[in-house]
Design a protein that fits this description.
The protein folds into two domains: about 100 residues; about 180 residues. By secondary structure, the chain is mainly alpha-helical. It has a two-stranded antiparallel sheet with strand order 1-2. About 75% of the residues lie in helices and about 0% in strands.
Length: about 290
C-alpha cells in the first residue's frame, strides 16, 4: 500500500522513475542486439528509448508549476526539493551510455567510420610531415613508431566501405580485428614517442600520434557498440597495450576538440562522450 500511495502522491517522480527504467532497459536490449522489430529506419527499442528520454526532459522542467506553486519544503537531512531530485534524475538518465539513441547498427557504425575518414587521413598526413619538425636524432625513433599508420588506416576505411556496400558478419569481424590492430599500433607508437628526450621533439611526436589515436579510439568505441559480448571479449584479448598505459600521454583538450568538430557539438558535450567511451573501453578490457 505504501508503494501505491507514494505513486499517487508523487506522480511526476514516479513517472520519472518509470521513464528512467525504460531508458536503461532499452540501452541494455540495444547493446545485446535485441530490436523488438523495426520502426521506420530504426528499431522499436530505439524509438522507446528516445521517447522515454524526451518525456523525461519534459518532466524535469515545468515552468508553469514553478510560477503557481510555492517552493517545496526541504526534505531533511538533505534539503533537496522534489523538483531538484527530478532534475537530477533526468540528468543521470541523460548521462547513461545511450548508443541506441543514435540508431546504432553495424551499417550506421560503418558509415560513421567512413565519415571519420577525412579526419583520419589528415591526421596520418600530419604524422608523415612531423618528421621534419624533429631533431635529427629523434626522427628515426618517430618514423619507427609510426610505421604502418598509412596502411592500417587505408585497410580500416576500405573494410568500412565494403561493409556499407554489403553488410555481413564476416566483414564486421574484419573491422573488429583491424580497429584493434590499429589501436595497438597507435598505443605502441605513443610509448615509443615518449622515449624521445628532446622536449620539443617529444611534444610534436606525441601530438601527431594522438591525433591519429583520437580517431582510432572513436572508431573502436563505435565498433564496440555494435559487437556482441563474445566479440568484444575477443577484441580486448588482442589488446596487449591497455588504454591505461597511454592515458597519461594524451591531451584531453585536443581529443575533445577533435570529437566536437567532427560531430558539430560543443567541447563540453564531447568531453562527456569521451569520458563515457573511455570508461566503456576500460571496462571491456581495452
Amino acid at each position: 500500500m505504501n508503494i501505491l500511495s507514494n505513486i499517487w502522491n508523487q506522480p511526476k517522480t514516479s513517472a520519472a522513475g518509470l521513464l528512467i527504467a525504460i531508458v536503461t532497459v532499452a540501452g541494455v536490449l540495444s547493446q545485446q542486439g535485441i530490436s523488438l522489430g523495426h520502426a521506420g529506419s530504426g528499431t522499436v527499442v530505439t524509438l522507446a528509448g528516445a521517447l522515454a528520454t524526451a518525456l523525461l526532459g519534459l518532466l524535469a522542467k515545468d515552468p508553469g508549476q514553478a510560477q503557481t506553486l510555492p517552493p517545496s519544503p526541504p526534505i531533511p537531512p538533505y534539503g533537496i526539493t522534489g523538483s531538484a531530485r527530478l532534475g537530477a534524475w533526468a540528468l543521470i538518465a541523460l548521462l547513461l551510455p545511450l548508443p541506441f539513441l543514435g540508431g546504432c547498427s553495424g551499417v550506421s557504425v560503418a558509415q560513421d567510420i567512413v565519415n571519420w575518414t577525412p579526419t583520419l587521413q589528415s591526421a596520418v598526413a600530419t604524422v608523415d610531415t612531423t618528421v621534419s619538425l624533429l631533431a635529427p636524432a629523434d626522427a628515426p625513433i618517430f618514423a619507427a613508431a609510426t610505421a604502418g599508420f598509412d596502411a592500417a588506416s587505408n585497410v580500416l576505411v576500405a573494410q568500412a566501405k565494403a561493409y556499407l556496400a554489403n553488410p555481413s558478419a564476416g566483414t564486421l569481424a574484419q573491422i573488429q580485428t583491424q580497429v584493434v590492430t590499429f589501436q595497438q599500433q597507435v598505443n605502441a607508437g605513443l610509448l615509443q614517442a615518449a622515449k624521445i628526450v628532446d622536449p620539443a621533439s617529444q611534444k610534436h611526436a606525441l601530438s601527431a600520434i594522438q591525433a591519429v589515436g583520437t580517431v582510432v579510439s572513436a572508431m573502436l568505441s563505435l565498433v564496440q557498440s555494435v559487437s556482441s559480448k563474445t566479440a568484444v571479449a575477443q577484441m580486448a584479448s588482442r589488446s596487449a597495450i591497455k588504454q591505461a598505459r597511454v592515458e597519461g600521454l594524451m591531451d584531453s583538450s585536443l581529443e575533445a576538440r577533435v570529437v566536437a568538430e567532427h560531430y558539430g557539438e560543443g567541447v563540453g558535450a564531447a568531453r562527456m562522450q569521451l569520458a563515457e567511451a573511455e570508461r566503456a573501453l576500460e571496462l571491456a578490457g581495452f
